[in-house]
UniProtKB/TrEMBL annotation:
<dbReference type="Pfam" id="PF01535">
    <property type="entry name" value="PPR"/>
</dbReference>
<feature type="domain" description="PROP1-like PPR">
    <location>
        <begin position="235"/>
        <end position="374"/>
    </location>
</feature>
<feature type="repeat" description="PPR">
    <location>
        <begin position="219"/>
        <end position="253"/>
    </location>
</feature>
<dbReference type="Pfam" id="PF13812">
    <property type="entry name" value="PPR_3"/>
</dbReference>
<feature type="repeat" description="PPR">
    <location>
        <begin position="772"/>
        <end position="806"/>
    </location>
</feature>
<feature type="repeat" description="PPR">
    <location>
        <begin position="877"/>
        <end position="911"/>
    </location>
</feature>
<protein>
    <recommendedName>
        <fullName>PROP1-like PPR domain-containing protein</fullName>
    </recommendedName>
</protein>
<dbReference type="InterPro" id="IPR033443">
    <property type="entry name" value="PROP1-like_PPR_dom"/>
</dbReference>
<dbReference type="Pfam" id="PF13041">
    <property type="entry name" value="PPR_2"/>
</dbReference>
<feature type="repeat" description="PPR">
    <location>
        <begin position="394"/>
        <end position="428"/>
    </location>
</feature>
<dbReference type="InterPro" id="IPR002885">
    <property type="entry name" value="PPR_rpt"/>
</dbReference>
<comment type="similarity">
    <text>Belongs to the PPR family. P subfamily.</text>
</comment>
<dbReference type="InterPro" id="IPR011990">
    <property type="entry name" value="TPR-like_helical_dom_sf"/>
</dbReference>
<feature type="repeat" description="PPR">
    <location>
        <begin position="324"/>
        <end position="358"/>
    </location>
</feature>
<keyword id="KW-0677">Repeat</keyword>
<feature type="repeat" description="PPR">
    <location>
        <begin position="947"/>
        <end position="981"/>
    </location>
</feature>
<feature type="region of interest" description="Disordered">
    <location>
        <begin position="45"/>
        <end position="66"/>
    </location>
</feature>
Length: 1063
């Protein structure tokens, strides 16, 4: 190469002053029959508009002799020529000839072909040598018959038409021996082109040197051919050296050669050389084409010259070149990396205006922009466009789509996209797994995230540092301590854990209450010199505050104060100022006083918790004094007290509250209310009353304190005090919420204060209080339990008139209300209304209506409703099973009751006391006394203690059948079971003695229970009748006087001997 360069630049080598050799004969003046366009003797420079030189000897006009025949023959020739040589055929142009010339043209050996027969034969013979081994032939022998027959031009044609470089080399050597040969840059260019095409660079260089030795001046075609050869085979150093030599000679290349060089350099990532050559092109005013701009823009981007790339891009558009999609894509991705997202979006809009369909790489870049900026709707629109234009989405695009769905909270759509990736066999990248795992973590599906990470590991996908972090977060969120610690150790082996990972571990230790592990972990973090962030410092302080580690906390804050990264941290500065607080001043540190507009609440919480845990009362008072002296300090203090109450730190809240009172500061109404509620939950009514009494008389006392105090009294069972506070609040026009009123009414009902409950309800309606659905439901249920059914129905009507939507509890309560009124039609109407309103009915609603049907004796309707409930997809529970068994029992359908009892157990609902009571009733109604008694024994074996109701049901059945002895046996058995008979059992036995005229036994039974039983109208009236029947009037009068003294009414319509005993 150096030889080529030196000879190329040497002036003596380029001197052509000597005349051409004398043995080269001047070709005779013969008429040229045809020419070729473009000229086959020169390399194309791409300039198809080069003007044709004017002929010095204009030809005579063609006569019309045989003109038509000549035209038709020429057309036939052109057709055959195009068919044989393809789309790039070089077709001859029309030439004006005389009739005599045309006759000779048609009669010569060409016969209308491009070359003469001897030329074609020479081409064929030389080509055939390619099948023979090198050295097995002598070109002089082969071409012996063509000596003196081929002109220089025809030899050039033969040389140009060769396919193999050996034939070119050998034929060129033979050419130089012919008399008609003379050195020409054209023939050397043909040889250079052939050598360059097959990569024979050394031969090409030797030929170039030979051309210089022969005195031929290399033109731009020859130089361009040499440069293209270097470029084609990657000889970039030689190419650039030759190019620099050519520049010094002032040779201007065509744009095609420049493109060849630029493309070759870019393929080897020599972008600096590309940019340098581009500058040369601009300086020499070489007009670039579309391909030039595409290559140069790419290299400028690769070199980081984004501004220059955009200038070139704008220049390209100014010359009306339409950039390709790859150019737009490259600029968009580069703009994204440079943070110029608006520029990237502008490029995309320009791309769309040109009608260019983006590639999946461009779409991935745009989706990244949309994702980072939160333009999620635009991202989804772009994805729809991709589907419309049938742009195949790769794994990167699907991964971005999963992330976007995750940001939008559409975890199900993200999961479907992930499954689609797997079905398309595109799932291979770790990032896709991690994106889906992060979506699961964000939606709280920690188990799914962990399973996905396990799947990723099972497929032998290598874990990166970020993958281990996600794996660790999964274990932290599900609380798997052992796995989390093992994952942390694995992460530590491949990379240094960062502050975020350490924060996750500390959060887990704190959540699990493992403070010792948390302290050890902090020691390890400090030992490993892990870079802190504010979140990690907060966790450190949280651990120190819980354990009262004052010295460690002070060391940490002192260390943080020396770090520049925490100078603007409100958290660190607040703790630092609090630690240096001395009453209403702050100690100076290094001559500077730290100024802070508003202390950080979390920092104050940590600091006060630290002093509380270490029982440092002096520092607590100093800190609070300093805090109250700052702007907004009192508000922060109240917030902290409420925060401690919410977190359940009762002792901390009490200490701060007491300190606040001690410092003559008044807590806010919300703080007082929180304290009252806290004491109410602890059943410390006296403390709550003390706080209320201290501040209830101030002008600022308002709604929150009254609401909290009323609710606290209600929770503690102080209904009288609660009612007094309610009346006091309403007299002061204090607004009480619907929740407070509901709790108050519900408490009155629980303690049997029906009148007070009704008064509150009336007053709420009178004051037009804002009531919600829950409040109305409470009112209806309260009046239902109070037995005021008409008022309860009116409350429901008022609820509808006020536009308050009923809930399922409303319909259930109203069905029960109409059941109590024995208004089955209304109950069914209410049930149907609930169905029409689209309210999702539950088991309770169905059970209420089934019970109403059962009480009305409509067991068939009840059975149908029970089946309908199951068809609606509502699985019967214990409540509905008990109700339905009781319906069958009332109807005496013991077989159906037994079947339902078995079905209930099969469905996994163990029978309870109510279930057995219904089954006993079913047997007694069917007079199956033995089965009824066995049922009571069976429930005892199952560990369920029978109640008096179970025995009373059996006793009543025996007495109805006249089996008094059996009833007495069951009564004795009940006493043996350790049960104390209730009034119903006593009434049942006395009723039996009276009905079957067992007077003596009845009197004995009464005298035995008289001292223990509560005064009852039926029992005492029955005793009076039994005494009189036996003639014991004094005893009868004594019982009657006792009834009169206690205000118990006497039942005079009782009859002795109403039934006959069974014989």
């Amino acid at each position: 190469m150096e030889a080529v360069k030196s000879l190329f630049l040497c002036p003596s080598a380029l001197s052509f002053s000597s005349p051409p050799p004398s043995h080269i004969l001047k070709p005779p003046n013969t008429c040229i029959l045809c020419s070729i366009t473009p000229d086959p003797w020169t390399l194309s420079d791409g300039n198809v508009n080069k003007p044709k030189p004017k002929s010095k000897n204009p030809k005579k006009p063609l006569s019309d002799d045989n003109a038509r025949r000549i035209i038709k023959s020429k057309a036939k020739y052109l057709s055959a020529l195009r068919r044989n040589q393809g789309s790039h055929a070089q077709t001859p142009k029309w030439i004006r000839r005389s009739p005599e010339q045309m006759v000779r043209y048609l009669e010569d050996d060409r016969n209308g072909h491009l070359y003469g027969r001897h030329v074609v034969a020479a081409i064929r013979i030389v080509r055939s040598l390619s099948q023979r081994a090198e050295g097995s032939y002598d070109m002089r022998d082969v071409m012996g018959s063509f000596v003196t027959k081929l002109s220089f031009r025809e030899m050039c044609v033969v040389l140009k038409e060769q396919k193999g470089w050996r034939q070119v080399r050998d034929f060129f050597a033979w050419m130089k021996l012919q008399l008609s040969y003379h050195p020409s840059v054209i023939v050397y260019t043909i040889v250079l082109r052939t050598y360059g095409q097959v990569g024979k660079i050394k031969l090409a260089e030797q030929t170039f040197l030979e051309m210089l030795d022969a005195g031929c001046e290399p033109d731009e075609i020859a130089c361009g051919t040499m440069l293209c050869a270097y470029a084609r085979w990657g000889h970039h150093k030689a190419m650039l050296s030759f190019y620099s030599a050519m520049q010094e000679r002032g040779v201007i290349l065509s744009v095609v050669v420049y493109n060849f060089m630029l493309s070759s350099l870019q393929k080897k990532s020599l972008h600096g050389s590309v940019i340098q050559i581009w500058g040369d092109m601009s300086n020499k005013a070489v007009a670039p084409n579309h391909f030039t701009f595409t290559v140069v823009i790419c290299s400028q981007v690769k070199e980081g010259l984004l501004e220059e790339a955009f200038k070139t891009f704008n220049q390209m558009k100014s010359l009306n070149f339409v950039p390709e999609e790859v150019t737009y894509s490259l600029l968009i991705s580069s703009s994204l990396k440079a943070g110029k997202q608006d520029e990237a979006l502008r490029l995309y809009e320009g791309m769309r205006s040109q009608g260019i369909v983006p590639s999946n790489f461009t779409c991935a870049s745009l989706l990244t922009i949309y994702y980072k900026n939160g333009y999620y709707s635009d991202a989804l629109s772009l994805f729809s466009e991709m589907e419309k234009n049938k742009i195949p989405a790769d794994e990167v695009i699907y991964g971005l789509l999963i992330r976007i769905y995750g940001k939008l909270g559409l975890s199900e759509d993200a999961q479907r996209t992930f499954e689609e990736i797997e079905q398309l066999h595109l799932l291979s990248d770790e990032k896709t797994y991690l994106a889906m795992a992060q979506v699961h973590l964000s939606s709280g599906d920690y188990a799914k995230a962990l399973n996905l990470m396990e799947l990723m590991r099972s497929r032998n996908i290598l874990f990166s540092r970020f993958a281990y972090i996600i794996f660790l977060k999964c274990y932290v969120m599900i609380g798997d301590l052992g796995s989390a610690e093992a994952t942390y150790q694995s992460l530590s082996k491949i990379a240094h854990p960062d502050a975020g990972v350490c924060s996750d571990m500390l959060n887990m230790y704190l959540r699990l209450g493992l403070l010792e592990k948390a302290k050890d972990f902090i020691v390890q973090i400090r030992k490993d010199n892990i870079q802190y962030n504010e979140e990690l410092c907060r966790l450190f302080m949280k651990v120190y505050s819980k354990e009262g580690m004052l010295r460690e906390a002070e060391q940490l804050i002192e260390e943080m104060n020396t770090s520049q990264s925490f100078q603007n941290s409100s958290f660190i500065q607040t703790i630092s100022m609090g630690m240096r607080a001395k009453g209403r001043r702050i100690e100076k540190e290094e001559g500077n006083v730290v100024a802070l507009e508003l202390p950080d609440r979390n920092a104050l919480e940590c600091l006060l918790s630290l002093y509380l845990a270490s029982d440092n009362k002096i520092k607590i008072e100093e800190t609070l004094t300093w805090l109250l002296d700052t702007a907004g300090g009192l508000s922060l203090m109240n917030q902290l007290i409420r925060k401690f109450i919410q977190d359940g730190d009762i002792s901390k809240a009490e200490i701060l509250y007491d300190q606040l009172i001690k410092l003559d500061s008044r807590p806010t109404d919300a703080t007082c209310a929180s304290m009252i509620t806290m004491y109410g939950n602890q059943q410390k009514l006296d403390r709550a009353k003390e706080i209320f009494a201290n501040f209830s008389h101030s002008s600022s006392a308002g709604t929150q304190m009254y609401k909290s105090m009323i609710v606290t009294c209600a929770k503690c069972g102080e209904t009288v005090e609660a009612y007094r506070l309610y009346k006091e609040a309403t007299s002061k026009k204090v607004y009480l919420s619907a929740v407070t009123i509901s709790i108050l009414v519900n408490t009155f009902i629980q303690y049997g204060k029906y009148q007070e409950a009704e008064n509150v309800i009336h007053h709420s309606f009178g004051d037009n209080s804002e009531l919600d659905t829950v409040a109305y439901n409470t009112f209806i249920k309260a009046m239902l339990e109070a037995g005021k059914l008409h008022f309860a129905a009116n409350i429901y009507d008022r609820m509808l008139f006020a536009g308050i939507p009923p809930s399922i509890q409303t319909y259930s309560t109203m069905i029960s209300l109409y059941g109590r009124q024995r208004n089955i039609d209304k109950a069914v109407e209410m049930f149907n209304m609930a169905c029409k309103m689209g309210v999702a009915l539950d088991e309770i609603v169905y059970a209420n209506l089934i019970s109403i049907y059962g009480k009305a004796g409509k067991n068939h309707e009840a059975s149908q409703l029970f089946e309908k409930m199951q068809k609606e997809g509502i699985k019967p529970g214990k409540v509905s099973y008990n109700v339905m068994i009781n319906v069958y029992a009332a109807a005496g359908l013991c077989l159906k009751a037994e079947q339902l009892f078995q079905a209930m157990q099969k469905d996994g609902f163990p029978p309870d006391s109510m279930t057995y009571l219904a089954l006993v009733r079913a047997y007694t109604e069917s007079l199956k006394f033995k089965e009824a008694e066995e049922t009571i024994i069976s429930m005892q074996k199952d560990g369920i203690l029978p109640s008096c109701s179970h025995f009373n049901q059996l006793m009543w059945a025996f007495l109805r059948a006249g089996l008094i002895g059996e009833a007495e046996r069951v009564f004795s058995k009940m006493l043996a079971a350790g049960l104390s008979p209730d009034l119903a059992c006593y009434r049942t036995m006395l009723r039996g003695y009276m009905d079957y005229k067992r007077v003596g036994e009845g009197i004995t039974f009464f005298e035995r229970i008289n001292e223990t039983v509560e005064p009852d109208s039926f029992i005492m009236s029955a005793a009076v009748h039994l005494y009189k029947s036996e003639g014991k009037d004094p005893q009868a009068d004594g019982v009657l006087n006792s009834m009169n003294n206690q205000g118990i009414p006497f039942l005079s319509n009782l009859e002795i001997g109403a039934k006959r005993p069974v014989m």
